[in-house]
UniProtKB/TrEMBL annotation:
Keyword Hydrolase: yes
Protein name (record): DNA 3'-5' helicase
Domain UvrD-like helicase ATP-binding: 8-285
Reactions that this protein is recorded to catalyse: Couples ATP hydrolysis with the unwinding of duplex DNA by translocating in the 3'-5' direction; ATP + H2O = ADP + phosphate + H(+)
EC number: 5.6.2.4
Section covered of the full-length record: 1 to 740 of 1033
Gene Ontology CC terms, in alphabetical order: nucleus
UniProt binding sites for ATP: A29, P30, P31, G32, S33, G34, K35, T36
GO biological process: recombinational repair
Chain ranges of the UvrD-like helicase C-terminal domain: 286-594
Keywords: ATP-binding, DNA-binding, Helicase, Hydrolase, Isomerase, Nucleotide-binding
Any one GO MF annotation of this record: DNA binding
Protein species of origin: Talaromyces stipitatus (strain ATCC 10500 / CBS 375.48 / QM 6759 / NRRL 1006)
Source taxonomy: Eukaryota, Fungi, Dikarya, Ascomycota, Pezizomycotina
Length: 740
């Protein structure tokens, strides 16, 4: 019997899951056991005409990040073809919800053309409210608290009603929450939480919007929060056909209200749920797996689970202590370069990831990578889009797309300068508020002489305002004339030229103009690349009889989709011009979920960072280290500085580290490295062994100086000896092994 290509390369347990006839299925399994692979195959199976034959537009598949959905789209394309995949409703919960709201938001009274407030916008709004009302609470915690209330479905009215105590802090919070909601509404903005909440509202009131849906699939289910869980149920309301995959040991979003309880909740709600367990690990070497296991097993409350390595033991994880954080960064980058050279190019920059507890730790590493000329990209940290010059251009685009965005308009009103000072802006804002108009409508009226401000405007301010209004109106006309998907780039070019943006940068940042302009060029490239943003197909929902979908203007929709994608993405390309496959990844551990790399560095593994000194849940901190370690396929490096760079105090290695790796000395250099490590790496990655010539060339080119310290730390070879290697020694060592 021919094996179905969909089932090719899957083990028995994975096949059972893919072909399971039950409609509600949970696949629970440890990292690297092929959950995502299995989920992907199940999507293909559901669509296959030989099996269920569902229409792709009737299947919803939720991934945790935009990157993960792109990867899944790619994998599926191989299995079932681009055509079919492009119709699938595949994305993050946020992007899928946005899609439903664009199409059907009018049914719940959402104004069309809403914008998305990203976390920066939210913070700005909250800061402004706190300042205006002269309150004592801190903006950042207030924002997280609002978000966590929303994630639990608690609105400010609920809190207001429940306000038994006269606790001042609580009262202030409710005030901020209320004003925040009002500010979003007046700018026709939805924040991340609103995208989910409003979609829940939509689907509860108008379940026919998802009446076509045949199946719902969710990856990384352990990190769904209450609202996402509810959405999943609503999506699946018609046919109750759900597949989820997850691993409670990798739940690391409790701080954002994720609830592992959802697993049991789901089993209670759907009594016919079947559970499939996967036990083989295909990702990591045996020794990496064993160390990771030792970390997670410290959690005594956790049920014992089986996990079998499918690869050999490989190279032991390395723990290194460096004098300072700067030295740690230097060592990591040198080590990356050395690995690339020593393995005869078996490894390339994109095979390496540096994982951090928080993005704030990345600065030194970024600068060291820059210094040593290693290209990198940063994921989940301070984003490319948050750079001042990019942010400004984005604000222009946002106002053009959506002029009611009061905050964005306020930010661009006097940048570049138009003689509209803070007082004038305040004057205009007050005017708009009392006229119950958006800032934009009010300004337009003022410019056209239909209204006036309380205090009349100076002549220069008046001129400045009309210039701005003229620019935005011209841009909106241009947008309207744009009847294809090129609008993001067209508008961006328009703004840049009308503002004389390059000259503005030169005048404002004389020392840094070149860098900033390079960023602008990168941004232009991204705006022109419709595949980088998600394409039009991502926005189409199937037609449903009796339900009218909002059909927008194609150019306007393309711009708004581009902006939504920017708001919802965490990924950044920092260097330009290079092939994306040639970059080292720096990522927060949180953003690295579900991904894998041949070589992983986990930096700053010390008490206070992992576990974090402010963390409330130490089990979650342990799982975080577990997630980080289990990203590695062939080599795992853990490191810490001897002194904390903030307070200069001596550090203690993370108490989560098992004794087995706390003691490791540096290995993996010398002919032994060549012999075992390189071939071992190639085997785990399923790559061809590098040629002897390549290895010899690598060894001869050396990369010495920085690594003197490393060479001498080797068990078997002194630094001296190591430096004296030559090709013949390597060759004899290879010969001795009798060729793999
Ligand atoms: P995580 O919990 O980290 O998200 P996961 O369980 O989703 O991990 P996958 O990412 O699906 O795991 O798979 C991990 C690696 O193992 C991938 O490189 C995948 O291609 C490979 N893999 C999965 N199943 C098999 C198999 N049956 N045979 C060979 N390789 C496999
Ligand atoms: Mg996965």
């Amino acid at each position: 019997m021919d094996i179905d290509p969909i089932l090719n390369g899957l083990n028995a347990a994975q096949r059972t899951a893919v072909t399971s006839p039950t409609s509600v299925l949970q696949v629970l399994a440890p990292p690297g056991s092929g959950k995502t692979k299995t989920l992907t195959a199940r999507v293909a199976y559901l669509l296959s005409s030989k099996h269920h034959g569902f229409r792709p537009q009737d299947v919803i598949c939720c991934t945790f990040t935009i990157k993960a959905s792109r990867e899944m789209r790619e994998r599926l394309s191989h299995l079932i073809g681009d055509q079919v995949v492009s119709k699938l409703v595949l994305g993050t919960f946020h992007s899928i919800c946005r899609r439903y709201l664009v199409a059907y938001g009018h049914l719940i009274g959402l104004k069309k053309g809403f914008g998305i407030a990203d976390s920066n916008d939210s913070l700005t709004i909250i800061k402004r409210i706190i300042k205006r009302l002269n309150l004592n609470i801190q903006p950042n915690p207030a924002r997280s608290r609002i978000s966590s209330q929303k994630a639990q479905g608690i609105c400010w009215q609920d809190l207001d009603n429940a306000r038994h105590s006269k606790n001042v802090e609580q009262q202030e919070f409710v005030q901020v929450y209320r004003e925040y909601e009002a500010a979003l509404a007046s700018s026709n903005l939805l924040d991340y939480d609103d995208l989910l909440l409003r979609c829940v509202d939509l689907l509860r009131k108008h379940p026919q919007c998802v009446s076509n849906v045949q199946a719902v699939l969710v990856d990384e289910f352990q990190d769904t929060n209450a609202i996402q869980y509810e959405l999943m149920n609503l999506f699946a309301a018609q046919n109750r056909r759900i597949t989820i995959v997850g691993d409670p040991d990798q739940s690391i979003y409790g701080f954002r209200s994720a609830e592992t309880k959802n697993l049991e909740r789901m089993q209670r709600r759907y009594p016919n749920t079947s559970v499939v367990l996967l036990e083989n690990n295909y990702r990591s070497s045996g020794s990496i797996l064993r160390s990771a296991q030792q970390v997670i097993e410290q959690d005594a409350a956790r049920p014992v689970k089986k996990l079998h390595p499918t690869h050999g033991i490989g190279t032991m994880p390395v723990l290194r202590k460096l004098p300072t954080a700067a030295a740690e960064a230097q060592w990591m980058v040198a080590e990356i370069r050395r690995c690339i050279t020593l393995t005869g190019q078996l490894l390339k920059p994109s095979d390496f990831a540096i994982l951090l507890r928080s993005a704030a730790l990345s600065r030194q590493i970024e600068s060291e990578l820059g210094k040593q000329g290693v290209p990198y990209r940063m994921v989940g940290g301070s984003r490319f889009f948050d750079r001042v010059e990019i942010r400004l251009l984005l604000d222009y685009l946002r106002v053009i797309s959506h002029p009611e965005n009061n905050d964005a308009l306020a930010r661009i009103i006097n940048v570049p300068t138009r003689k509209i000072g803070d007082e004038t802006l305040k004057n205009l804002t007050v005017g708009a508020e009392s006229a119950k108009l958006s800032l934009w409508s009010f300004i337009k009226d003022v410019v056209q002489g239909r209204r006036s401000c309380q205090k009349s405007l100076s002549r220069p301010a008046n001129i400045g305002l009309s210039t701005l209004v003229g620019l935005i109106e011209a841009a909106r006309q241009k947008l309207h004339d744009c009847v294809d998907e090129s609008s993001p780039r067209t508008l961006l070019e328009f703004v840049i030229s009308k503002l004389g943006f390059r000259e503005y940068l030169t005048a404002t940042y004389p020392l840094d103009e070149e860098n900033r302009w390079a960023n602008v060029e990168e941004f232009l490239a991204q705006a022109g690349d419709s595949s980088a943003s998600y394409s039009q197909q991502d926005d189409v929902l199937p037609e449903i009889e009796g339900l009218e979908q909002h059909q927008g203007h194609i150019g306007e929709e393309a711009l708004s989709r581009f902006l939504a994608n920017v708001a919802l993405s965490t990924e950044v390309t920092t260097e330009q011009g290079d092939q994306p496959q040639e970059k080292v990844t720096i990522s927060t551990i949180h953003a690295a979920k579900g991904l894998e790399w041949p070589v992983v560095f986990v930096a700053a593994v010390y008490e206070g960072i992992i576990p974090h000194s402010r963390a409330e849940d130490s089990d979650e901190e342990r799982r975080l280290l577990y997630v980080a370690m289990t990203r590695a396929q062939a080599l795992l490096y853990l490191s810490l500085p001897r002194r904390d760079s903030k307070n200069g105090e001596e550090t203690r290695p993370s108490s989560f580290l098992p004794p087995s790796i706390a003691e490791t000395k540096f290995r993996a250099v010398g002919p032994k490295f060549v012999d075992k490590t390189i071939f071992g790496i190639a085997d785990i990655l399923g790559r061809e062994h590098p040629s002897q010539e390549a290895i010899i060339t690598g060894l001869q080119s050396g990369l010495p100086s920085l690594n003197d310290d490393l060479w001498t730390h080797n068990d078997e070879y002194t630094g001296d000896k190591a430096m004296r290697w030559d090709g013949s020694q390597v060759l004899s060592s290879l010969d001795g092994r009798g060729q793999a």
